[in-house]
Amino acid sequence: MRHLLVMGNLKLNGSKHMLNDLITGLRNKLRSVVGYTVAIAPPVIYLDLVKQLLAGSHIALGAQNVDIHLSGAFTGEVSAEMLKDIGAKYIIIGHSERRIYHKESDEYIAEKFAVLKEVGLIPLLCIGESAAENKAGQTETICARQLDAVLNTLGAKAFQDAVIVYEPIWAIGTGKSASLIQVQAVHKFIRDHISRHDATVAEQITIQYGGSVNTGNAAGWFTQPDIDGVLVGGASLKVDTFSVIVKAANEVKKS
Ligand code: PGA
């Protein structure tokens, strides 16, 4: 079954105080939301704090990265088993900020995908094209290449219960979200691409959109047949904006 998921990616933002306010506020505002899974991915140092703040709520814990190794002499890294141990469930990999600033390759990201599957965590595999690639009409080629790194090493079955996030790089943090028609078309392309390998997995996979999702454009995404949720950056930092987005998802789901 498709997993309908709205997740906040807090990136390198927050403090103990800010997270306390954010999670307390979200718990209050989102009590009645039942149709969608809601998750929050704080910076790694606050995972345990946020897990405790979320205790007894239906909001799940996510994380923003994972290492490819399970243990050993890898200074500064955090393993999939550690994320599992602390109670995180949805793990972002392949975010364009890591592809760009940390030079993470498609193959390296596929290894992260593999290690998450190995320990039973849910990868959120981010893919998407740059502004120049978009302009050159290469959106589908880029998305296919990023998907193939996983498909060709782990097979389509690895996508079972996983999440793909389509995030055009030019839409991230810019206030310029892609249009509904564009995004729906790319999501359909992604599903069709997986379907060539395994139609059942393709039908069931969750495909989120990310990139300048905000209170103004929130409701539209959830009306599209191949958009199963959103990954929210900037607008997830405030109770008021993130709760409006989650509620928009819930309203469309109910209607
Ligand atoms: P944004 O970030 O909502 O601030 O554009 C989205 C993301 O990078 O996941």
Summarize the structure.
This protein is α/β, with parallel strands linked by helices. The chain has helices at 16-29, 47-54, 80-86, 96-101, 106-119, 131-135, 139-154, 180-195, 199-204, 218-221, 239-254, and strands at residues 5-9, 37-41, 59-63, 90-93, 122-127, 163-166, 206-210, 229-232. The mean pLDDT is 95.
| Cα distance spanning the termini | 19 Å
Mean pLDDT: 95
Give the structural class.
Answer: alpha/beta
The hetero compounds bound to this protein are: 2-phosphoglycolic acid
Please write the string of helix (H) and strand (E) elements.
Answer: EHEHEHEHHEHHEHHEHEH
Cα shape: globular
Our count of helices gives 11
The percentage of residues in β strands lies in 5-15%
Gyration radius (Cα, Å) is 17 Å
Strand order of the largest sheet: 1-2-3-4-5-6-7-8
Largest sheet: 8 strands, parallel, barrel
Question: Low-confidence spans: pLDDT under 50, at least 5 residues?
Answer: none
The counted number of beta strands is 8
Helical percent range? 40-55%
Attribute tags:
alpha/beta, globular
Helix and strand arrangement:
Layout: E1 5-9, H1 16-29, E2 37-41, H2 47-54, E3 59-63, H3 80-86, E4 90-93, H4 96-101, H5 106-119, E5 122-127, H6 131-135, H7 139-154, E6 163-166, H8 180-195, H9 199-204, E7 206-210, H10 218-221, E8 229-232, H11 239-254
Parallel strand pairs: 1-2, 1-8, 2-3, 3-4, 4-5, 5-6, 6-7, 7-8
The structure holds 2-phosphoglycolic acid.
The site of 2-phosphoglycolic acid (PGA) has 13 residues, from strand 8.
